[in-house]
Predict the structure.
Amino acid sequence: PIPISVITAQDIESSGLDNLPDILARLPEIDVLRVGRSQTEVSMRGKGIIFNRRTLVLIDGRPEYNDLFGVTFWNAFPINIHDVERIEVVRGPASALFLVNAFTGVINIITKSVTDESHSDVRVAAGTRANQNSELTWRHRASDKMAFKVWGGNAVADSYRTDVPFEGFQRFTTTNNIVDDPESLDMVRIGAQMLWTPDESWDIRLSLGASDGDLELFQQPGLPRSRWEITSNNIYANATKILSDTKSLQFSGYLTQFEYNTPLAPSRTDIAQLSFSDGRFYFPSIEPDSSGDPFEFEGESETLNLSAQYVSSYYEGKLNVVFGMEWRFIEHQSDDRNGRRSGLVRDIQKNNDGDFTPSVFGNFTYKFGDDRWILGLGGRFDSWEIDINDVPNFETQKDDDYGYVASLSYFPVTGHALRATSRRAFRAPSLFEMGSDISLRVPGQNHGVNLIGVESLATESIESFEITYTGRLSETVQISVEYFIETYDDLIGNPDSGILDNIEFDDISQQFTTTTTFSNLVGADSQGAQLGLTWLPSQRMTITANMAWLDPDGLND
C-alpha cells in the first residue's frame, strides 16, 4: 500500500559495483553523500545530513540502525554484496509497517536463501589506491529439513588522511593516496545462517553476524574526522508457526552488541608541538590521560528486541491482517578512568516500559470491486523512557508517539494503477542525542567547547500525503509519476545549527566555554515529484530515465 522500488540480484550483478550505496544511488529517490573513504550517508527525498539518523535499514528483518548513535555504518554491514537477493526501498514514512525509526523511508535488504543444492562463491577484487575486497559464501543443504549458509569478507581501503600532522580537521582530499597507506582502513565481516523445518508447521531461522575493523568518521561539523575502531556482533532468531493455510504466528528476536574506540580529536600534547602556521589555534583537542598518554573514548551498547505477530487472510485472500507487539531494551556503558568517563555517552538505558509496556502495531488490506480497489490501513503506538545512571537525582524521562498509514489503490485496467496514501511516522532520539558528554579545548585560546546531550528531547515526527500513478503506455514502455507533500514537527537539529545552550566565563582563568546541544527545532515542510520511464527495446536491453524534483522549506535550516 506504499511506494516502493526494487533492486534485484541481476541488477546488482550487471552493475559491476561492489558496495550498497553506489547501487542504491541509481534510484532517483536516493541521495548519497560521501563524507570520507569509509563513511557514506544514504538518505531519501533531500534529507541528507552527516550522520544521517532518519533512514531505517533492515537485513533479513533485523535493523542495521545503530541505536547508540542513531546512524547506519554502511561499510560495516556483516553481509556480502553478491549474496543479496533483492533490495526493497520504501519511499517515505513507514513506522506503521516497520519499526519506529522508519522516518523518511526503509531500505530492506534480503539475502539469498539456501538453494536446493550446495553451492559456493569466491570473489576477489584488487586495484590501485590500496583498494582490496574479498568475499566467500558457502551454502549447503544437509537434508530436507536443514540447510546452512556461511559467509565472510574483508575490505581494505586507503585512509582519507590529509597531509597534516594528525587526523584532518574539516579537510577533505579529492583523491586517495596512490601508494599503500600503512594506516589503511580494514573491515572484516563474517556470518552464518541456519534454516530448520522440523515439520510442515514450523519454519525456524537462526542468523549470526559480526564486523570488526576501522572506520574514518566525521561525526558532526565542528568535530575532527578521526579513526574509529568498531566491533559489532548480532544474533537473530525467527520462528514461524503455520496454523493453517491462511494463518500463522511469527516470533522473532535479536541481540546486537556494539563497541567503539576513538581518540575523536588530537591530544593537547600533539598540538602543542605545532607552530602557529600549522593552524594549532584552530584545532580542538583532548586533555591527555592522567598518565600522560593520549586519551581515547571507548564504550559499548547493547540492543535487545523481541516481537510477536499474527498473520492471517480471510474471504479467499481479499482481507489480509497483521497485528502484534514489540519490546526492546537499549543500554550504553563505559568505564570510569581515574574519575573520568571513558565513553562519548553517559551510562544510559532506554526501553519501552512506559505507561504502555510494549509497542503495538496492526495493519490490514482489503480488496473490493472485483479487486480493482484496495484499501489499506495500519497503525503503531510506541512509548519509551530513559534512565541515566551517573546523573544524581535524575528523573526518568518518558515520551510516546504513533504512526499510521491509510491508502486507497485503484486499478482501472490491466497495467495501470493509481494510489493515494497518507502516512505518519516518528523517530525517538538516540542515546547520543540524549546522553552525549564531550569536552574539548582549543589550545592557545581561552576557549572550550562542550557537546552535551538533552535527555528531554521529544520524538520527532513526519506526515506525508502522496499520489502515485503507474501505467503501461505500450508493451515495451512504462511510466510512473509520483507527487508528495511532507510536513515535519520537532525535528532534532544538529549541534552545528548554531544553538548555544549557555556560555560560561571564569574570571580567574579568563576561560570561556560554549555548550552546544541537540534541540527540537521548529517545523518544516517539503514537496516533490518523481518521474520514471522504462523502455524495453529488446529482450536483452532495458533503458530507464528518472527525474526527481524537490522543494524543501525550512527542512535544512
Q: What stands out?
A: The longest helix spans residues 9-15.
